[in-house]
Amino acid sequence: MKVSWSERALVQLKKAHEYIARDNAKAAREFVEAAEALAAVLGTHPGIGIGTDERGVIVFPLVRYRYFIFYKILSESEVRIIRLRHMSRKRLD
């Protein structure tokens, strides 16, 4: 299954990378690699995670980095990552 990233999710991934890189460039690279690896898993196992109160949105934790990855199954052939959020941030993000 194809996995795509929304523009919003890509911006959030970039901002998270920049934030982590301020203290640890290696950890920032590893964070992006972990997010990309999870995206690949979503392509082979769509539907993993927990449904949210937002219709059609599923969330899966990137536990080591304390981020949530939110995504939707758009069709039988595509999953779209729609946003990332640090676990400490409020829902409005």
Features:
single chain, 93 residues, alpha+beta, YaeB-like fold, five-stranded mixed sheet, 2 helices, 5 strands, 38% helix
Characterise this structure.
The chain is α+β, with helices and mostly antiparallel strands and 93 residues long. It has one domain (2-86): RelE-like (YaeB-like fold, 2-Layer Sandwich), CATH 3.30.2310.20. It is built from two helices and five strands; from the N terminus they run βααββββ. It has helices at 7-21, 25-44, and strands at residues 2-5, 50-51, 57-62, 67-75, 78-86. The chain has a five-stranded mixed β-sheet. A hairpin with a 5-residue loop joins β2 and β3 (57-62). The radius of gyration is 13 Å and the shape is globular. The model has no long low-confidence stretch (mean pLDDT 93).
What is the level-2 CATH architecture name?
A: 2-Layer Sandwich
Principal-axis shape: globular
CATH superfamily: RelE-like
| Range of helix content | 25-40%
**β-sheet strand percentage:** 25-35%
* Sheet having the most strands: 5 strands, mixed
Tell me the structural class. Answer: alpha+beta
| Count of discrete domains | 1
